[in-house]
Amino acid sequence: MPKVSLAELIAGTKAGKVVSFPTDTVPALAALPSYSGLIFVAKQRPQDKPLILMGASLEDLWPYVSGTAKELDIWQELGQKYLPGALTLVLPASEKIPVAMNPTDPTTIGIRVPKHQVAQMILSKTGPLATTSANLSGEPALLSMNKIAQVFPEVLTLDEESPPGSGSPSTVIKWTNLGWEILRQGPIIPSNL
Length: 193
Hints:
Blueprint: E1 3-4, H1 6-14, E2 19-21, E3 28-31, H2 37-43, E4 52-54, H3 58-61, H4 69-82, E5 87-92, E6 108-112, H5 117-126, E7 129-133, H6 145-151, E8 156-158, E9 171-176, E10 179-184
Parallel strand pairs: 1-8, 2-8, 4-6, 5-9
Antiparallel strand pairs: 2-3, 3-7, 4-7, 5-6, 9-10
């Protein structure tokens, strides 16, 4: 599909289409959580590589995770310190998360708030979206909207100049019974893990 305006991208997202827009790290492929299976098909992504739930704010994302009051306090403290930003928190998933977002382990979900004005504007209009980097599975992340439009002609791609992201994927940390575990080191190195 051709590149589209911000309004068309938001409307397409709400209609169940896969879209692409810039973030603070690498551009995202995104869809409403209930349409996350379309992202796996578009990327030719293995089912054991889960998607991330991206939101405009932490408040938008907390309903999608499930933990004790003490755990929520710990997660909120870390989230308030580093988000928005290039940090993904992998937490126990609530029943609101579709199994299709993490088919091999639907009990967990990665959440993130990007530090990017355009991404936050889109997410504030659509609600949290299932996301992943814009690339075919196993290939490097595509960093330009033009390249994304070429590789994914069926995806609605934002046709507006936006500040590019860092080009580096986010740090990913997972909450376990023993505390935080680093799954992927990225630009943010949280202290006191």
